[in-house]
Each structure stands twice: as C-alpha cells, then as structure tokens.
What we know:
single chain, 146 residues, alpha+beta, CATH 2.40.50.140, 2 domains, 5 helices, 50% helix
Amino acid sequence: MEILFDNLNFMHWLVLGLALIILELFLWTTFLLWIGASAITVSIVFYLIPDVDGLTQVLTFLAISVAATYLSKKYYPIKTVDDELNEKAKTYIGKECKVSSMEDGVIKVQIGKSLWFAEGTDLSVGQSVKIVGVEASTFIVEPVKT
C-alpha cells in the first residue's frame, strides 16, 4: 500500500478529476462533478507543492471532496419536477375542493381547472373534501363535515 501512495503525483489527480467529470456528463448526478473538481484542485495544489507524501495527498483529497459535496448539497440543491409539484401542492393544504372521479381506486380532485391525485376514505364523486396533507404530489383528503 505504501508503494501506491509513494508514487502519487499531481498528474494522477488531474487524470482522476477529468475522468470523473467526463463520467459525470453521462450520469447527470452532479455528485461526481464535485469529487472530480476536488481531484483537480488537489492536482493543482500538489503541482505547486510537489514534495508531499501520498497519504497526505489522499487525506487532502478526501477532506476537499467531503467539503465540496456538503457545500454543493447545501447551496445548490437539485430540484426536480416532483419537488416543484410537491411545493405547489403544499400551498393547497387547508383548502376545500370536490372529488372529480374515482376509477379503479384512483381518486382525482379538481382545483380550479387542474385535476390532482388524492387519497382518502369514505369518499364519493362530487363530494366536498378538505386537503389535510400532501404525500409526494398526491393530496391527503378528508370529507368536509357539514
């Protein structure tokens, strides 16, 4: 293991970083982007400071990778269409709407001109319901008590 660490130089880190970034182009996760950027950063640092042992290089790479990944998740969160739908759906909690259809156990409620999936018990078509929660982009509804 010492032989592996003793032979590390900046070029190994540069190749690793570029390989991870190229791999990221095909995976679309953004996770490998930050790891690859960390490897390229380590290659630059150890190009400027060449007399550093391999274990220190690996530990530096790990520290920069963890920090970069944490900061990217905190300041650049990945938003998906489901996340945006879920955020929009949460704005309807507490509102009333009507059950539009019930087919094969799939309940749909109408809000304005939009139909949304819903879950609930003791429901019938045309019944007024109140939205009490959201799971993914599906409303959790209860019958309105009159």
